[in-house]
Predict the structure.
Amino acid sequence: MAVRKPKVVVTRRLPDPVETRMRELFDTELNIDDAPMTADELAAAAARADVLAPTITDRIDARVIAAAGERLKLIANFGVGVDHIDVAAATERGITVTNTPGVLTDDTADLTMGLLMAAARRVVEGSDVIHAGGFHGWSPTWMLGRRIGGKRLGIIGMGRIGQAFARRARAFGLAIHYHNRKPVGARITEELEATYWDSLDQMLARMDFISVNCPHTPATYHLLSARRLKLIRPHAIIVNTARGEIIDEDALAAMLEKRELAGAGLDVFEHEPAVNPKLLSLPSVVLLPHMSSATIEGRVDMGEKVIVNIRTWMDGHKPPDRVISSML
Ligand code: DGY
């Protein structure tokens, strides 16, 4: 007897090999046009699917979950962050939520290091000068940035990505400090020669570089508030490849404009895709369009994780990357 394939609705275009495999394995609806779905379209998709495969551009809120049909049992997110999904509402309805941890750790850590380097050494400004025909010869006092080696880096959130970034930063001679809900284990502490701060305020006031690497949850919304940003020393540079909502973007932009902070490297924004206009005009800020996991290999690996989660669920087992709402 033929087994009915689950109806899987994929909300955005995914890499070709992922889409092809999903068509082979499931009754898959693809979004060939790649246009982000409206709230009504998402609700309609939740009503007809067994599995929804959304991304960060889809707001799977309580209204979408309430519209889910009896058959919706799995939300297999393409991405590690799940702040766009109301996981508690899904759990309440008996819908499992999965994500794609691990496979984008190194790519994200690489780009975090790249942003730190770009902001500290004025890489984008330098490149812009050349493109504008403004390079008229070397000068001892021109385009001076800030040395990276020998400085202190404070990492907010020492999960997989925070640790992978810390390893890279160590290789550049940075001293690793971090704030986390709890200290990491002895082996990692020793490997990274890392210093733990239970007080974020205390850490912020002492660092040369600060990197945001924690998930966005109700507890981390505006963790870098206007008050906390004021604690940071004016020569410091902030990097964020996690979520824009963790920093009060208006307060950050105002401080950068007044040169109360030396610079920033931002891959994510509080009201994405909108970017605070003040940031756009500041040469001390390097801005990227949420691309820290954007490698061909990474996006295929993420797709494979989505497939494994759906397959495991389909076979009657618990998917490996279940998101537990009490852990958020
Ligand atoms: C992630 O995986 O969370 C990336 O930020 C894209 O959503």
About this structure: The first strand starts at residue 7 and ends at 10. The mean pLDDT is 97. The radius of gyration is 21 Å. The pocket of (2R)-2,3-dihydroxypropanoic acid is lined by residues 56, 79-81, 104, 293 (CB under 6 Å).
